[in-house]
UniProtKB/TrEMBL annotation:
The lineage of its organism: Bacteria, Pseudomonadati, Pseudomonadota, Alphaproteobacteria, Hyphomicrobiales. Pfam families: Methyltransf_11. GO terms for molecular function: S-adenosylmethionine-dependent methyltransferase activity. This is Class I SAM-dependent methyltransferase. It comes from the Bacteria.
């Protein structure tokens, strides 16, 4: 079973917006639809795994775990080359929903504008020139001075998949403060991460992803993989992200551990769902 910690009892609004059978049908149809845009598999922005399969899987998580409504105003922080956006085009209501993706890598933004926005006008992509030592080393915006280019309370669902896994702890707090600012009351954040607790650190079950042999960085909350650049994969001590979310005024609703740590789970990375001001 997936190791899920339910921190509050969900209200009815957290139930999936469509029936389980329809979620399964939707994700399968996305996998089979050869007309949906897909980037060149050799693209450095695609990331691990099959582009279409990972996107379809996460759409299921957004609906089942995050309670993503059909009419949501969605912000995708770190939208990359559209891995989350493409399946969302098949789910979000084209008349009522809005999607905005932001990313520091301009090539990914341009690909999404050409191949997604041109077909789905309610999908927008913006280049945000945030400096990052791996993905955008010449960026003009220091991550500690991040200001999302949106008014307060603009979105009711925010996605951060594989974002804090590449950020230092002080920048994580800045990002979450901005998420809290642009998230409407009752809105939700779905965020993935690597939580390094005793099970993960000691590889207690001997099945942890061998690529993620994290070691603690001094006395701070970050854990890095020794043979990789520090921000290639960042883990955080158990409890840090909970405190960071609470410090930003966000209420952790669900924390679900992933199978990277060697335990059975329906998803790879650890996953948080947090709400702005509690449930809507």
């Amino acid at each position: 079973m997936t190791d899920v910690v339910a921190l509050k009892r969900p209200e009815p609004e957290t139930s999936p917006a469509i029936p389980e059978a329809q979620i399964d049908w939707l994700t399968q149809s996305i996998l089979k639809n050869r007309f949906l845009p897909s980037p060149d598999p050799s693209s450095v922005f695609v990331g691990d795994g099959d582009f279409r399969a990972v996107g379809a899987e996460f759409l299921g998580h957004f609906i089942r775990i995050g309670g993503l409504p059909l009419h949501a105003q969605v912000l995708d922080i770190g939208s990359g080359i559209g891995r989350m956006a493409v399946p969302l085009t098949q789910y979000l209501d084209p008349a009522k929903a809005r999607y905005c993706g932001i990313d520091p890598v301009v090539d990914g933004v341009n690909w999404c504008r050409k191949h997604i926005s041109s077909r789905y006008p309610n999908f927008e992509f913006r280049h945000l020139d945030i400096a990052h030592e791996l993905y955008n080393p010449r960026g003009a915006i220091n991550g500690l001075r991040l200001s999302l280019p949106f008014p307060d309370k603009s979105f009711d669902f925010i996605i951060m998949t594989s974002v804090v896994t590449h950020l230092p702890s002080d920048e994580v707090k800045v990002y979450l403060a901005e998420v809290s600012r642009v998230l409407a009351p009752g809105g939700r954040l779905l965020m993935t991460a690597f939580i390094v607790d005793d099970i993960a650190a000691r590889n207690r079950y001997g099945k942890r992803d061998p690529r993620l042999a994290f070691e603690r960085n001094g006395n701070g909350p970050c854990w890095f993989v020794p043979e990789l650049p520090p921000l290639a994969a960042v883990g955080f001590e158990n409890g840090f992200l909970d405190r960071a979310l609470a410090g930003a005024g966000l209420t952790v609703e669900t924390r679900s551990f992933g199978h990277w740590r060697g335990t059975k789970a329906a998803h790879y990375q650890d996953m948080f769902v947090a709400t702005q001001g509690g449930f809507a």
